[in-house]
Design a protein that fits this description.
Radius of gyration: 32 Å
Distance between the termini: 33 Å
Oligomer: single chain
Strand order of the largest sheet: 5-6-7-8-9-10-12-15-16-19-20-21
Shape: elongated
Number of strands: 21
């Protein structure tokens, strides 16, 4: 039966045409636009990681995952990022993000792509300039952060859709801090001192912050041995180098915090669809526990001292392939870390679209109880009715869904289970009233990285009226649901992190169905049906339970479903067996895009993201029957297959029993 019903539904669904099937392609960005420095530069001034022609940068990885292309602006593309770029033109008039943004806006006549994805990531070089001027360092960092925030707002004011703003990683944790201390403290022997320091640093493993700090101290001590053959002098020089390093690192770390905090506060005041990505947070998590991310050394670097990662390859003399590195050179991340950054940013961008699928839980629960009620309606219409008679019924209903890339994260599925108990009373021979209660225990896997359990309880009232061959039924429902064990999986290289949460939801709904029976034989009738169903679903916002750099919070979300249906049915009355079949063409007049809104827990900034565009046209094909067991007891069952959906397949089924008194 399942096979034949599915095929029938597909044939009917095909008649809807290509326009119906094109309704649920995943919402995509038009293009990726990038503004920034060497962390994002894919070829304007260079590509800053080793084997750069083979290893993609984080923004190239993101563009591939969203089905986009990314090329340097010098080659006609939309990546304006350039190595050495800063936020303030006065620091670097030749390469700065202010000019990058202006060049893009001039190219598009001031009208930014409203469905584009933007990245604006700058600040590291501004902080380096600030560190060189201790008296003005805070002012320089604050001014640069203000300029960066203003450029983001310029993009938004021009109509930019979604702007990703990553935080600047703590510059104090880069190998360049050690290089700066050696360059100043051991100027006469800086070259040999640097070689000695890196020989020590690169041979260490740094599984935690303590071992990392120890490795840096040992590297500075090794550098001190090149300044004097006397151990006592070496110790004195090493102590001075370590003290200078600690002081400089603390100052630069404070500047990094100041820059990130200032930019965040300014962006929060201005508002807009801003994806705040705490790359500094994930960077600190890597430093604290690199092993879980597949990294063995967080202090040294793979490329030899003095060779930029833009020019470095695994064949370069002095290249160190002995470890899994955080850094490619003294400032830039390794290819492995670029992939981690891409994973991290994508997890944030995708999260609201994944969470928007929670509304599917409330709709599935009410659909299941309505399926049982529909079987009861059909049983009553095809049976004897007597004023004053009382009926009770109960049934199990469920559905299996397959979602085809319905939201960020890939294909998914759902299994639902519903028990419905109802009572009805025949006021007259032609007028029925009743009520029901229902409970659901459902498991939803809308994407391969998002899942939840939904426990729902609902109450409903219904009524049916017959007037000759015409009939009319109406029902209203109220549902409350608890979403338990919401799990969002975040893949960060070899690490899979699960962010968990809980929330609740409610739904109000009503349906009106009308039909007309045309006799074919004494046992068979057929005729048209019309239906309109209205549902309003509200899901409460919630906060994920973790406190790490990937934990997010989400705002309330609402969904309005208004589905109109036109169909045809056939009913048979063959003794104790009363089969029926119905085909309905359905159209969604309500929301066809589900939107989620959220942001990281550690920021007030939020952004919205549309999920997949829902189907607006589809066909339901249903086969059912009732069976009289004796004068008081009857059984019923039905199965329904949805066709014409581009978002996946849907099969519903129900079975139950009723008694009349």
């Amino acid at each position: 039966m399942f096979f034949s019903l599915s095929r029938l539904s597909r044939y009917v669904g095909f008649a809807l045409g290509v326009a119906c099937a094109a309704g649920t392609q995943a919402a995509e960005f038009n293009n990726l636009y990038v503004f920034g420095d060497s962390l994002s530069d894919t070829g304007n001034n260079g590509r800053y990681t080793w084997n750069s022609n083979e290893n993609p940068l984080y923004d190239e990885i993101l563009s591939q995952r969203y089905g986009l292309s990314l090329a340097p602006s010098d080659s006609g593309g939309y990546n304006y990022a350039a190595g050495s770029a800063v936020a303030v033109p006065a620091i670097n008039p030749q390469d700065n993000t202010q000019d990058q943004v202006q060049r893009y806006l001039a190219r598009v006549n001031g009208a930014a792509d409203g469905n584009g994805l933007y990245i604006h990531w700058v600040g590291g070089n501004d902080l380096a300039a600030a560190a060189l001027d201790p008296l003005q360092a805070a002012a320089i960092a604050g001014n640069s952060a203000q300029a960066a925030a203003g450029q983001v707002q310029t993009l938004l004011n021009a109509g930019a859709g979604t702007v990703i703003v990553p935080t600047v990683p703590d510059v104090s944790a880069t190998p360049t801090m050690m290089e700066a201390v050696i360059a100043v403290g051991l100027a006469p022997v800086a070259a040999s001192a640097l070689q000695a320091a890196y020989a020590s640093l690169n041979s260490a493993q740094t599984p935690d912050l303590a071992s990392r700090q120890q490795a840096i101290r040992q590297a500075l001590a090794a550098a001190a041995t090149t300044a004097s053959p006397l151990p006592v002098v070496q110790q004195a020089i090493a102590a001075q180098l370590i003290a200078a390093y600690d002081t400089l690192a603390a100052q630069v770390s404070q500047l990094t915090t100041l820059y990130n905090r200032t930019e965040e506060q300014l962006l929060a005041q201005q508002g807009g669809n801003i994806v705040w990505a705490d790359v500094n947070g994930i960077f600190n998590e890597i430093l604290a526990n690199p092993t879980q991310f597949g990294i063995t050394n967080t202090a040294g670097m793979a490329c030899p001292p003095g060779l930029s990662s833009a020019d470095c390859t695994s064949q370069s003399p002095g290249f160190n392939a002995s470890q899994s590195w955080l850094f490619a050179d003294h400032l830039h991340p390794s290819p492995q870390v670029h992939a981690l950054i891409a994973d991290y940013i994508q997890s944030i961008v995708d999260a609201p679209a994944q969470v928007a699928t929670l509304n599917k839980g409330t709709l599935a629960a009410v659909q299941d109880s309505r399926a049982t009620l529909d079987s009861r309606y059909n049983q009553l219409r095809n049976g004897a009715k007597e004023a004053g008679s009382l009926g009770v019924f109960g049934g199990y209903s469920g559905q299996y869904r397959k979602y085809a890339d319905n939201a960020a994260g890939g294909d998914g599925r759902a299994n639902t289970n519903n028990l419905t108990l109802g009572v009805d009373y025949q006021l007259t021979d032609n007028w029925l009233v009743g009520g029901l209660i229902a409970g659901s225990l459902d498991k939803h896997y809308p994407t391969d990285r998002f899942q939840y359990d939904a426990d729902a309880f609902q109450v409903g009232l219904f009524s049916a009226l017959e007037y000759g061959p015409a009939w009319l039924s109406a029902d209203v429902h109220y549902l409350t649901a608890d979403y338990n064990d919401i799990q969002r999986q975040v893949e960060l290289g070899p690490l899979t992190r699960t962010e968990k949460g809980d929330t609740s939801a409610k739904l109000w709904g009503a349906r009106l169905t009308a039909g007309f029976d045309i006799p074919v034989t004494t046992e068979v009738t057929t005729g048209p049906t019309l239906q309109y169903a209205w549902d309003y679903s509200h899901v409460d916002g919630y906060r994920e339970q973790g406190d790490d750099s990937t934990a997010m919070r989400y705002r309330d979300q609402n969904y309005h479903s208004q589905v109109g249906s036109a169909g045809w049915r056939i009913d048979g009355r063959f003794g104790v067996v009363k089969p029926w079949a119905e085909v309905n063409y359905r159209h969604q007049f309500g929301d066809d895009v589900w939107t989620g809104q959220g942001g990281l827990k550690n920021t007030s900034l939020t952004f919205s993201r549309d999920g997949a565009k829902e189907d607006t046209n589809w066909v339901d094909t249903t086969l059912g029957a009732s069976l009289a067991l004796n004068e008081q007891l009857s059984a019923f069952a039905a199965v329904s297959q949805t066709g014409g959906l581009s978002s996946g397949e849907q099969t519903r089924y129900n079975v139950g029993i009723s008694a009349s008194f």
